[in-house]
């Protein structure tokens, strides 16, 4: 049945001659038809906003809304002619010519919660969101990170739920069989396939198979890898990261040590160790000191954070250490109150304690107290964290940290790559 | 002097007509001549291995070594003909034709420690390593992450110090003047420039300016962004992430909460909360439970970790919660002993305590004890962490976590993008 309508991918590679396309067994088919189990789950790190209903289809207003959002935000004209050409008129979500069946039943539902979404083809696709498959021979974090960053360019339509997107990460894909299964599934779902595959055979296979199956695809790291290869005059190894093992480099131990240190120094603990920190963060409760510290620790910085609490003296050592390590954090009082209210609720504070913590008068007073301290210590840069994600504040801290050490006109963060085991593909 | 030899970049954009190329002031020049202050610093998160001397130049053996490393690791032939063509013969590090001066004095030293590296041109370039400039209009984390991942493909030569690489991150680059300064500096240093610039004007400017100045370059996210734009039928906003502000989404609070939770649950604390965790890690000391927990928390998972210590009972609640959340960690005893010895040294343990903690007999006995517990709890998957970076173990845990919840044949981690504020460019 299904198999017969799927074109065979030309045999590009000699390594697994017997493995495809025959491995596409009915077992896989029947299982992948089960729409409930394989798609969107409530994800701990993604907001699903269950209370909001998806709006009705309004494809034609996409560009209008986008223009509006853009002009509101930037107030100026942006031209992306190449893409405009590609994207207008918006491509229909019809399956590619040589590609798999459009039987509604094989397109799994993404509505989650066990609903059977085998309804109208395009309707359900729009309601469900378009699928992006990320395929990696390693951890998949690079694919995830890059796709997240690229999706930042489509927030104007994602936020409105006009073009909902579902991403699906397939990590540790190391053999052709599995790769082929995923590409077939992508064809069935009408997904875009973005991949990072170190093995050039695998990458070439993915490219060709996607072409044959009508799956739009792109190699995430290829342009960078090629640019670096040409720059260094060295061919890439073609070996997935981690395959070589041995992350027990000095850097590895440093990162672990930074995390251990940072956890122990959280929330003003052990002020006697402040001089051992690379970075010291100072601010009132809920200015994001802890998550910021942890984020920086993952990058190898030993971070201590010291809370500012009215009526509690800051530790004496704070004023004795190198003052260039210290960064103040401040925040808009209205936002802080919102955050604190949420926090008090989640901690189940009683009404009395809550008022002291999140009442506007108290919030303002505490921020003024903090600002007074910052004024008395003018060498501490004060970072306004309102509206900033942790990553953004971290970027500012790291930039200033290096600027202060480097003291040069063109601020940059330089690293020497000799041995490293940083982020994995 | 210098300015006159630099070709003017054609004026592509009307926005900053007066700003270039006249802004290349002598002030910048003289400062950038100071080799000490602007380049490689000892980086908290990079191992520099000061004791190893850089080997003499052996360019001609690069490919040999690469082949050797490759065949040792993989035992099979890898063909990358396109790159082979590009990379052989290795390009000379000579400055591009239309490009800036080759005066040795303007190429800053990257040897660090205040050495003046104004020596022989090629010699010093080889000793210093080739420069890769990463330019971002945002945090720069995406550029850093992608370049790290791509450099994983060149470990065979980085490890040998045959092609040392120095990366330089320029984040928050939002105007043309600064962009031009950086590109000029890249030309002077003979650097490769990799960029993520959301504004299409900026991206186009970078591309053209690099062309004119002979700087090899690549747009890191362009292929993904274009593929997504075509897939969604929506043009990218052209607005850097973070410009819109407001990361106070439900997801943001979830991530913060996960980090707070995870820190509080570190090292077996508060066993009464184990049922509130998404993931519970169990293992002996120094199997990486803490950094792994923190890494997973950053991705939004609430993680608790429970140490296995001989003579100390595991908390009763561990056996009462959903057993599918629990993951055991194990490690090779020889590696564990190495790690523990380093740990004991850094903590300044006395010899008696140290022996108990890191003596081989004790290490083996404790791992056997842990394995007995794992055998008694067969629903806990046991992950061998030897030779794995935190990111790799995390990928396995996350994959299994989702597999267990999804129970489908094609394991994948699915997310719905409606509102998000994930990793920043």
Automatic annotation (TrEMBL), chains A, B:
Positions with biased composition (Basic and acidic residues): 43-56
Compositionally biased region (Low complexity): 101-113
UniProt GO molecular function: ATP binding; protein serine/threonine kinase activity
Keywords associated with the record: Kinase, Nucleotide-binding, Serine/threonine-protein kinase, Transferase
InterPro entries: Kinase-pyrophosphorylase, PPDK_reg
Top-rank taxon, per record: Eukaryota
Compositionally biased intervals (Acidic residues): 115-124
Biased composition regions of type Pro residues, renumbered to the chain: 88-100
Transmembrane stretches, start-end: none
Stretches the record annotates as Disordered: 1-124
Alphabetized NCBIfam families for the sequence: PRK05339.1
HAMAP family according to UniProt: PDRP
PANTHER family according to UniProt: PYRUVATE, PHOSPHATE DIKINASE REGULATORY PROTEIN 1, CHLOROPLASTIC
Protein name: Pyruvate, phosphate dikinase regulatory protein, chloroplastic
Organism of origin: Ensete ventricosum (Abyssinian banana)
Lineage summary: Eukaryota, Viridiplantae, Streptophyta, Embryophyta, Tracheophyta
């Amino acid at each position: 049945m299904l198999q017969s309508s799927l074109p065979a991918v030309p045999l590009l590679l000699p390594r697994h001659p017997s493995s495809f396309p025959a491995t596409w067994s009915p077992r896989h088919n029947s299982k992948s038809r089960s729409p409930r189990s394989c798609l969107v789950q409530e994800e701990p790190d993604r907001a699903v906003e269950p209370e909001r209903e998806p709006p009705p289809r309004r494809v034609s207003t996409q560009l209008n809304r986008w223009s509006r959002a853009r002009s509101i935000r930037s107030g100026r004209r942006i031209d992306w002619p190449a893409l405009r050409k590609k994207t207008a008129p918006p491509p229909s979500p019809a399956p590619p010519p040589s590609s798999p069946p459009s039987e509604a039943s094989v397109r799994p539902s993404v509505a989650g919660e066990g609903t059977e979404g085998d309804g109208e083809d395009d309707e359900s696709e729009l309601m469900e969101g378009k699928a992006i498959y990320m395929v990696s021979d390693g951890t998949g974090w690079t694919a995830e990170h890059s796709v997240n960053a690229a999706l930042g360019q489509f927030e104007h339509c994602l936020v409105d739920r006009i073009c909902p997107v579902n991403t699906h990460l397939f990590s540790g894909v190391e053999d052709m069989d599995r790769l082929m299964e995923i590409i077939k599934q992508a064809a069935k779902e009408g997904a875009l396939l973005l991949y990072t595959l170190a093995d050039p055979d695998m990458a070439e296979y993915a490219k060709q198979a996607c072409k044959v199956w009508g799956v739009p695809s792109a190699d995430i790291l290829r342009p960078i890898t090629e640019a670096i290869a040409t720059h260094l005059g060295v061919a890439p190894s073609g070996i997935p990261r981690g395959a070589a093992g041995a992350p027990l480099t000095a850097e590895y131990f440093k990162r672990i040590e930074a995390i251990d240190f940072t956890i122990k120094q959280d929330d003003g603990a052990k002020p006697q160790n402040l001089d051992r920190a690379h970075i010291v963060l100072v601010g009132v409760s809920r200015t994001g000191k802890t998550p910021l510290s942890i984020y920086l620790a993952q990058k190898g910085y030993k971070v201590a954070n010291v809370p500012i609490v009215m009526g509690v003296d800051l530790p004496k050592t704070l004023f004795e250490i190198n003052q260039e390590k210290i960064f103040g954090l401040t925040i808009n009082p209205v936002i802080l109150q919102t955050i604190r209210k949420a926090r008090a609720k989640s901690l189940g504070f009683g009404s009395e304690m809550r008022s002291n913590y999140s009442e506007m008068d108290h919030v303002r007073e505490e921020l003024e107290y903090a600002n007074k301290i910052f004024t008395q210590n003018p060498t501490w840069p004060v970072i306004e964290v309102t509206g900033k994600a942790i990553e953004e504040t971290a970027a500012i801290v790291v930039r200033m940290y290096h600027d202060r050490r480097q003291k040069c006109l063109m601020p940059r963060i330089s690293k020497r790559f000799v041995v490293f085991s940083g982020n994995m593909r």
